[in-house]
Design goal:
The chain is an alpha+beta fold. The protein has four helices and eleven strands. Strand 2 and strand 3 form a beta hairpin.
Length: 154
């Protein structure tokens, strides 16, 4: 399951991407994320304006799934939108987010998944400028076989 190289300017809501991010840690780590808002404006306490990358963390260090229960992951993805196949051979998918505004997912999407976000603690924000320092890839994820078969048929 190889990753596909991607471009930060093409990242949109619903993409499942991976990138290396250092943040406050001494070593950068690989993060796999379902993007909800690719470039959300944010004003820091000092009045400095920046952008944040907002999404749901699906995997840690590239292979460790944050939601172990696959049917629960599928249910979460279905609440956000329709799962679509980008590359069936590479197992790369994206979620067509039902309602997006100019910046990405709208408040309605967040309200529909609020209980899952509290239960799994997967909501993440990243400094866009810091995240953009590393390359970005479309990341393959593991989904249950019956769902994959249905997605490939359509």
């Amino acid at each position: 399951m190889p990753k596909k190289q991607y471009n930060w300017s093409k990242v949109t809501a619903g993409d499942i991407i991976s990138f290396r991010y250092k943040g406050k840690e001494p070593v950068s780590m690989l993060h796999t994320l379902l993007v909800l808002n690719p470039k959300m404006p944010y004003t820091r306490k000092g009045g400095i304006k920046t952008f944040h990358l907002i999404g749901l963390k699906l995997e840690d260090r590239g292979t460790i799934s944050t939601i172990k229960n696959k049917p629960m992951l599928v249910q979460l993805l279905d609440r956000i939108g329709d799962v679509q196949v980008v590359s069936k051979d590479d197992k790369i998918y994206r979620v067509e987010v039902a309602s997006t505004g100019p910046r990405g997912a709208t408040k309605r999407i967040y309200n529909s998944i609020k209980s899952k976000l509290k239960r799994f603690a997967i909501y993440r924000t990243y400094d866009y400028k810091e995240a953009k320092k590393s390359g970005v890839f479309l990341e393959p994820i593991e989904l249950p076989k019956p769902l994959v078969e249905v997605l490939i048929e359509n």
